[in-house]
Design a protein that fits this description.
Strand order of the largest sheet: 6-5-14-15-16-13-17-20
Bound molecules: flavin-adenine dinucleotide
Radius of gyration: 21 Å
Structural class: alpha+beta
Number of helices: 12
Strand content: 25-35%
Number of strands: 20
Distance between the termini: 27 Å
Length: 405
Amino acid sequence: MKPSDRVIVIGAGPVGLCLSLALAQAGVAVTLVEALGDDNFLEQVPRAGTNHPATLEMFDRIGLYRNIEPRGIIAPVFHYWDRHEGKLIAAFDHIHLKDDTRFPYVLQCERIKIVEEALKMAKAHSLIDLRLRTEFTAFEQDADSVTAHVTNPAGEDEVVTGRYIVSGEGARSIIRKDLGIEFEGFTYPDRTLNIEVAYDFRKHGYAERNYISDPDEWSNLFHWKGPPDRWRVHFPTSPNDDPEALQRPAALQARLQGFLPKADEYEIVGSNLYTVHQRVAARFRSGRAILAGDSAHVNSPIGAMGMNSGVHDAFNLADKLVKILRKEVDEEVLDRYERQRRHVALQHTQAETIRNKRVLAEKDPAVRKANHEQLRRTAEDPKLARAFLLRTSLFESLREAEQIA
Ligand SMILES: Cc1cc2nc3c(=O)[nH]c(=O)nc-3n(C[C@H](O)[C@H](O)[C@H](O)COP(=O)(O)OP(=O)(O)OC[C@H]3O[C@@H](n4cnc5c(N)ncnc54)[C@H](O)[C@@H]3O)c2cc1C
């Protein structure tokens, strides 16, 4: 490969880092541009954290899994609860996937730990030219190359040239906007409240990962490894709620006490509010510029699919770019990347996460009852449970994408 066969990756999030590592390990030179620096890289707000088996296989492929496993919680089982009735509806055990994967569990490991470990690996790789505290501002392309404009840590403008540029910039992608690509979809009017709390909910029968349906106040409950261990609880809010009032200590305490009353106070360690979008870019590629991860699609976190499907984009794209640069395949395979990953974003990630929210928030008692019955029956039948888990853990999306020409 020639030195000019460089791939420029913008953003050292989970997608940009996985893509850079997969490319570099296959012999492709990468320039990875990240706005954050060593001093503030770990100050990012809490986000993703449930890593599905298919994603663990990919992390393993680049040697990342062994670094994150000790920092996470292996969680084979997840639960659906009915808060209204105070009952466990269904327990799904990934052991049903034991013949499908060597990782029959999810790893509860937060995005921040994943990017911290992946960044260490990127720093150590001689083919990755890592530019921290460097802001990408614009780019142009011609028939042979791309030129990225960046502002370096000294505040000076610089250019980086390469063969392709990939946006791993997240939802606010400059590349997507510069290309005039529509981010089609909608934004939910209500925001989600996330409360971080130091309390072991397993004492009450909860698993490490729980989806809790309720006609008035659905929630999600997740366990993260410490020290000290933390649990994250998500609650819905109303569009007109005052963000400041929602996050007052007394209001947060009341939410948790309403969810699970206990004699003493919960130890609340943090909270934040986030807006949920369901959007997919109209195109994932224009010439030598390619979108991956949140720059190409964003979705509700219910079902834990955003980061996972973004990482799947990264590996799909890495394999294709390596073959193109080795001159084994034609550049048109990038259109297949778009067909495959756009299909997954629309038909799997978006469709599933919209359905997940609807099921948790359903108000009609008859529909709720039918939904819960179906979940119960599915979990109890090993064949149905396996099919369900293949879908929720994104294997089905990968297998379907493989069928797309
Ligand atoms: C509350 C919440 C919970 C979630 N839970 C889950 C979950 O359990 N499972 C799951 O799969 N997903 C989850 N998600 C979604 C997940 O966080 C995202 O899908 C994932 O982080 C996207 O990764 P990314 O690398 O595409 O972008 P990002 O993680 O957004 O990273 C983008 C990177 O690009 C850098 N950057 C941006 N612009 C520039 C620029 N101009 N120049 C240089 N650098 C730039 C940023 O600093 C950042 O480091 C959750 C999201 C939220 C909000």
